[in-house]
Specification:
With 403 residues, this protein is an alpha/beta fold. The chain is 36% helix and 16% strand. The protein has 2 domains: 4-175, Phosphoglycerate kinase, N-terminal domain (Rossmann fold, 3-Layer(aba) Sandwich); 190-390, 3-Layer(aba) Sandwich (Rossmann fold). The longest helix is centred in the first third of the chain and has 15 residues, at 36-50.
Length: 403
């Protein structure tokens, strides 16, 4: 893949450079609650602007239905990006219409504009090649060059990710360059022991990556809501905990294959349980107890790994040569159930090996819980993209940049 340094070396002064970023930040009304994805792409944008390019930034936000929806507007992201860059960021109120054309035409060398949410146009996510291509053509008319730097979206075959770079001279941004280098360390040059920690709600979201890792990882630590399907598969009582019963045969086969391959598959030994799911808005104190993971009361739900599980998981992380973590191991949005996720993050910090926080909710938890991001080996900006790369899948956005 060509890099933006290659692009700059060939000259971008006065040229329109389209940067596909991932500014899909969480919002509370119009307030950004975690600006991590904006901060990590800002250096790429700044580098191009400093080289005299007219920078056109574009992204998606949320899942609008192919039409404008004010709750998914990128206007707050434009304001925050401007604060980070220390310069005004013009905002176009559409993607390829009159506002976008006028905003881009008004850019001077070194200036930056942000287009409105790409998913306000149905062509962005369409499965129809012609519809997607037509939108990519309209976007291409706005620019001279394309820079892909939205790693969190490269696993999507969307117009701005896959079709647009085929229509313009293109390069990978610094963020994507870094993300790919890290993922190669997790697949091609792994220092052992290799520990993988997987959490999150649904085991079905992680089946493919577990399948792949059973031949590559040394230790597989399972927490979060997905752990209860594993515990049920072992014949344990899980009460009203999250369960995907239809996945029990697959999970059972995975546990058998792990034993055969010499992969240590570690499940929680104790859990925090409650009869009530916590209020995540008020974060009022929860009524919970700690029980053996094999004996969850029939009317209780597991909501976090317990103290013994935290010690066990930490012991499997601390001496690892490489650690990859994706997914909270409890309902980390509530302070009473954030202890397990906090323990995992702290264990990664205390590990001398190469540590990677695999994007998504894990990355958000690290920031929300107040950890120093720079202390980790790498915090990915793309949870889904990272998982699909580890699964061995071809990511459309990366394939398009390699042409």
């Amino acid at each position: 893949m060509k890099t933006i340094d290659d692009l700059i070396q060939n000259g971008v002064t006065g040229r329109r450079v389209f940067v596909r970023a991932d500014l899909n930040v969480p919002l509370d009304d119009t307030t950004i609650t975690d600006d991590g994805r904006i901060r990590v792409v800002a250096p790429t944008i700044a580098k191009l602007a400093d080289a005299g390019a007219k920078v056109i930034v574009a992204s998606h936000l949320g899942r609008p239905k192919g039409a404008p929806d004010p709750q998914f507007s990128l206007a707050p992201a434009a304001e925050r990006l401007g604060e980070i860059l220390g310069k005004n960021v013009s905002f176009a109120t559409d993607t390829t219409g009159n506002s976008a054309k006028a905003t881009v035409a008004a850019l001077a060398n070194g200036e930056v504009a942000l287009l409105e949410n790409l998913r306000f146009n149905a062509g962005e996510t369409s499965k129809d090649d012609a519809e997607r291509g037509a939108f990519a053509d309209a976007l291409a008319a706005l620019a001279d060059f394309y820079v892909g730097d939205g790693f969190g979206a490269v696993h999507r075959k969307h117009a701005s990710v896959y079709d647009l770079p085929k229509r313009l001279p293109h390069a990978a941004g610094d963020l994507i360059d870094t993300e790919v280098a890290v993922l190669k360390k997790l697949t091609e040059d792994v220092k052992r022991p290799y520990t993988v920690v997987l959490g999150g709600a649904k085991v079905s979201d992680k089946l493919a990556v577990i399948d792949e890792l059973l031949g590559k990882a040394d230790r597989l630590l399972i927490g979060g809501g997905m752990a209860y399907t594993f515990l049920k598969a072992k014949g344990h009582e899980i009460g009203i905990s999250l369960l995907q019963e239809e996945q029990i045969p697959t999970v059972t086969e995975y546990m058998e294959r792990a034993a055969k391959n010499g992969v240590e598959l570690v499940l929680p030994v104790d859990v925090l349980v409650s009869a009530d799911f916590p209020d995540l808005k008020t974060k009022a104190p929860a009524d919970f107890e700690t029980v053996d993971a094999k004996k969850i009361p029939s009317d209780k739900e597991g909501l976090d790994i317990g103290p013994k599980s935290r010690e066990l998981f930490t012991s499997k992380i601390i001496d690892a040569g490489t650690v990859f973590w994706n997914g909270p191991v409890g309902v980390a949005e509530h302070p009473d159930y954030a202890g397990g996720t906090t323990a995992i993050a702290q264990a990664l910090l205390n590990c001398d090996g190469f540590t990677v926080v695999g994007g998504g909710d894990s990355a958000a938890a690290v920031r929300t819980l107040g950890f120093d991001e720079s202390a980790f080996g790498h915090i990915s900006t793309g949870g889904g993209a990272s998982l699909e790369y580890l699964e061995g899948k071809t990511l459309p956005g990366l394939a398009a940049l390699e042409d």
